Amino acid sequence: MSVGRPATLRPKLLAQGLKLPLAVGGSEHWRKRAEEARRLAEQIADADAKEAMLEVAKSYERIAARAEAMAAASNEELGP
Fold this sequence. Notes:
By secondary structure, the chain is an all-alpha fold. It has a domain at 22-75. The protein is built from three helices and no strands. It has helices at 6-15, 26-43, 47-78. Helix 1 crosses helix 3 (47-78) and helix 2 packs antiparallel against helix 3. The protein is elongated.
């Protein structure tokens, strides 16, 4: 499964009755998780642990972007 092309996989998965886990909660959910990870990182004194938590936040932001792309592709497929 290509992570870089979720829009091309969505129709196939939907045809099989499957839901994509990235869409759970939508992009807003994942952006909130990213913000929480950044808040936690601010409280961490250890540099390596802080860096790791900031990487978690970046990962959540990437998930949010993918969820947005999937939602946009879904809207295009449904049409007006």
